[in-house]
Specification:
single chain; about 70 residues; mainly alpha; 3 helices; about 70% helix
């Protein structure tokens, strides 16, 4: 859970092994749903696939941001 919504920071967290990256503000019910999914083995595989997909999308966004800056 972070107050930092920067795509580069999100990418670093995901590449460092975070399962999810949640920015503030967040509704308590949304956080509870994510924790429940993390703890439920049957939902964990889907969460792992989502994490892989999110990391790829974040990497693409960060690459575009860096390319546009140069």
């Amino acid at each position: 859970l972070s107050a930092i919504g920067d795509f580069t920071e999100q990418l670093h967290a995901m590449e460092d092994g975070s399962v999810d990256y949640i920015t503030k503000p967040i509704k308590p019910s949304d956080l509870a749903d994510k924790v429940e999914a993390f703890l439920d083995p049957s939902k964990r595989q889907a969460m792992d696939r989502d994490t892989h997909a999110k990391t790829g999308k974040l990497r693409a966004i960060v690459d575009i941001m860096h390319r546009d800056r140069d």
